[in-house]
Design goal:
The chain is elongated. It has 5 helices and 15 strands. With about 220 residues, the protein is α/β, with parallel strands linked by helices.
């Protein structure tokens, strides 16, 4: 248990440059509290102990603003940065060295049963407010941009942005630099504007030809 706590603290030091001391992490990091409480709740859930796993998860939700179902399987060195509004469903599976930010949802898409929440690979970063929905698989070394909605599987070493999420890179960077991410929706809009401008120019030329033809006929 103490080895797991030490590893979680080391993970926070590695991922968050704002972390200053062990005591600060233990007392002031809701992501740390949520993960540690989930470890307990999940162990009780796996032991098929009734009520208490859900009670612990709801207590964690009340204290941290992070809701993790006790049935979710979470790997090592998992870090939730800031954390408010994070929701992780019952059948979600998360690999090792995964980083997620506030407002992320790993949820289902309806009232289906069975495996209805995402499986997240290793070394994945999920940006602020992103939603990953359904029993899909997100590969290793994937980066999901802030605000994206992902409803289809994503292969390894990809970067995904947009609504719905689209793969914009086939190789993943070490960090998720939102300032350098492509904007596929913006590019589509720019392409559409360029096409409209081209059509307007063609229409204007046709109108000029028509006026010139009418003028010659009148003469």
């Amino acid at each position: 248990m103490f080895r797991g706590i030490r590893e979680q603290i080391d993970t926070i030091f590695r991922e968050d440059p704002a972390a200053r001391s062990v005591i600060e992490i233990i007392l002031c990091y809701p992501g740390f509290h949520a993960v540690m409480l989930h470890r307990v709740a999940h162990a009780l859930y796996e032991a098929k102990i009734p009520f208490f796993p859900r009670f612990i998860s709801q207590l964690s939700r009340f204290l941290t603003g992070i809701e993790i179902h006790p049935g979710a399987k979470i790997g090592r060195r998992f870090f939730i940065d800031h954390g408010m509004g994070v929701v992780i469903g019952e059948t979600a599976e998360i690999g090792d060295d995964v980083l997620i930010f506030q407002g992320v949802t790993l949820g289902g898409t309806g009232h289906e049963t069975g495996k209805r929440h995402p499986t997240i690979g290793n070394h994945v970063v999920i940006g602020t407010g992103a939603k990953v929905l359904g029993g899909i698989t997100i590969g290793n070394n994937v980066r999901i941009g802030a605000g994206s909605v992902v409803v289809k599987p994503v292969p390894d070493d990809s970067t995904v942005v947009g609504i719905p999420g689209r793969i914009v890179r086939s190789r993943s960077d070490a960090v998720l630099d939102h300032g350098l991410l492509p904007d596929p929706e913006g590019q589509d809009i720019n392409d559409l504007k360029a096409r409209v401008s081209e059509l307007e120019s063609q229409l204007h030329a046709l109108q000029q030809d028509l006026l010139l033809t009418q003028s010659k006929r009148e003469q």
